[in-house]
Amino acid sequence: MSEIEILVGIPSYNNADTIAFVVEQVDKGLREFFPNKKALIVNSDGGSTDKTKEVFEAVETETEKLFVTYKNPVPGKGSAFKDIWEIGLEKGAKYFVVVDSDLRSIRGGWIKKMITPLVNGVDYCTPNYSRHKYDGTITNQICFPTTYGLFCHNIRQPIGGDFSFSARLAEFWLKKADWQSNVAKFGIDIFMTSNAVLNGFKVKQVFLGSKVHDAKDPSANLKPMFEQVVGTLFGIVSENHEKWEKLTKVNDVEVLEKEGFVEPQELEVNAEKMLENFKLGKSGQLENWKAVLSEETFGKVGEMDVPAIDSELWSQIVFDCIASFKEDSDRVIDALIPLWLGRNYSFVQETINMSNEEAENKIIEQGKLFFKNRSYLLEKIR
Ligand SMILES: Nc1nc2c(ncn2[C@@H]2O[C@H](COP(=O)(O)OP(=O)(O)OP(=O)(O)O)[C@@H](O)[C@H]2O)c(=O)[nH]1
Ligand SMILES: [Mg+2]
Taking the model in full, what pTM does it have? Predict the structure, then answer.
């Protein structure tokens, strides 16, 4: 096949119900906005047992399409990205876009919004959406405040899933990643964002409206995803402290295409279930909490029957966990999961009567607090 300019990659695992719409919108965007650039749409699949492949191949598009089952033996989203990057680089693609296969709100215009900055010299665009106040619990409570407070980049959706990037960044990530680790799974998004900001790539955010996808209830089982994302992030934080500790000012990463507030996807959360899981987790994790947390932090949470974890206490918990991560990463993750459920429960209590926009401000304030308290962590790990 001849050289291409744009590669749009779609990772999938059993997404037969939703992938056709994503492919149609991608094709529409490419035809409408980049009719003169040769493009390829790649579906990188993890061995779906539904009809994802058949559905993908049946969509009629003007853009050429390619279905692959990725090669890396570790099953996960990151392994799907690895093949997407390799195929794009091999075919000479200059501009890459990746979008999730469970998206309902993607439109052709997303392709324009995500590729245009790359044409103008940007290396990496992260998405910026209006989301329900309780959608994105790993993002809101961990990835955003850490990216803001430690990596000093105000990037609201560091693991948003829908990204665009230059070939030079794809090449950089490809070499840097450990494809046997959680980077091959859901750790991929935070790996991409952290490494882009820590290594001087030019980053922007692109506002895409609301993210409508198969959103998961945070009280449901997010444990594997939590381990993969948070484990990857804490590893990067610990290994790179010489890099981020030098940063002293938060880089206010520009949001392109910003519009007013857009009504986000509705989401039901089950606070009672979070409470129940916190209590269950507490009885099983008390020993680990004691080992991982500072005396002061443990003194507070060890006493709690009903969690009341505000942003201040939460920043201490997260920093204690990061400081202990190198020693025993599994123990830290196990200890943190019920505490994170407790923080989610507390956040629901704090914001139950707030609009999505008001709750959004609390998340931004929490990011600022992580920045303000970063010396607490630095004193522990230096
Ligand atoms: N190839 C492949 N793709 C995967 C795998 N797991 C997830 N994906 C894809 O990665 C994308 C994101 O996965 P989702 O399960 O929607 O996760 P998410 O939207 O990031 O997370 P939530 O906010 O918790 O819903 C989707 O396009 C999935 O099909 C996998 O094991 N293999
Ligand atoms: Mg999703």
Answer: 0.96
